[in-house]
Amino acid sequence: MKKIVKYIIFALIALLFIGTFVFLFKNSRPEAIQYNEHEAKLADISRTTVITGKITPRNEVNIKPQINGIISELRKEAGQMVKEGDVIAKLRVIPDMNSLSSAQSRVRLAEINLKQAKTNWEREKALYDKKLVSDEEYDQVLQTYNQAIEEKNAAQESLEVIRDGVSSNNTTGSSTLVRSTITGLILDVPVKVGNSVIQANTMNEGTTVATIANMSDLIFDGNIDETEVGSLVEGMPMRITIGALPDYNSEAALEYISPKAVENNGANQFEIKAAVKGTGGQMIRSGYSANAEIVLEHADNVLTIPESALEFEGDSTFVFVRTEDNFERVPVETGLSDGINIEIRSGLKEGDIVRGTRVINIDKKKQK
After folding, report:
1. CB-count exposure of residue 97 (10 Å: 0-12, 13-18, 19+)
2. Is the pTM of this model over 0.70?
3. What is the three-state SS of 171-191?
4. Phi, psi of 245 (to 5 degrees)
5. Which residue blocks in the chain are alpha helix, DSSP H?
6. For labelling alongside 8, which of 23, 208, 282, 308 has CA 20 to 30 A away?
7. What are phi and psi of 58, to 5 degrees?
8. Which of 280, 239, 277, 232 is nearest to 256 (CA)?
9. Which of 217, 221, 291, 230 is nearest to 256 (CA)?
10. What helix, strand, coil percent values describe the chain, rounded to 5?
């Protein structure tokens, strides 16, 4: 019995040894090198680039107050449509004390002049009624009196505007009402009730009460590298996509190329703008990040092969063309490339089979 067990053990060891030898022998044998093969065929080819940028309205207007004051009422909010002349906010006036004092002094002086002019006129009229003064003298005194009345009214109106923001003679033109200057969508209302606001002047830009834009007239604003800007011309078509709207795409027309470069992360880039043709029924928001694909060059119905089939030696380019029993190295002249396929201008004909990249045995790679 013990001898039988020994024989079995010896047999198993022998089988294991033989199996290991066969496995190592098979793996040590060189495998035949295989390559992908591609057919030279006619196709359209183009070189494109993708430009990153954002969608903005062409006309975006900041609405500012005509006087200094405090926001007492907000009648509109961001997201609402407004028409030109619609009231956005109402102000409570905070008059400038120097201007107010000057206006009050002007009113008092005008009242004094009017009182004296009225006295002179009444005296002159009494003499005129008795035929003691000429028409010319009477008319001069009457004119002075009328001028004094107008000066008093103008001084009073100026005081009311400075003090109240509106005059009693022009309530519809009140400067306490902040009105929209265009028809469009309110993008932002950066103030709240109680905030102080100032009017624009030579010393400051003034407080923005609201930002309004016409969202039916949009542009793509982006930057392109200096290596590609030379291929652009105004009027070139572009295709716009927006990351936040996966189903959205729109045509656009290039309408502006900046004549001056700006440095961005160490690279010179040029600003471009393109008119977006329609919103496609989508709600487009100002500032959406977007991509613009633009065709820089294209060639139609040309002979093409995968660019990976090319081999380079110095300034020359070669491909391996299949013959009856092998591959023959052939020089070729290349043209336009889209990064995957490349145009072959000479050296090949339609239907030729060229050698591509080497085929990797995935199963063998996993074993190793």
Report:
1. exposed
2. no
3. HHHCCCEEECCCCEEEEECCC
4. -125, 85
5. 2-28, 97-129, 135-164, 226-229, 362-367
6. 23
7. -65, -45
8. 232
9. 221
10. 30, 40, 30
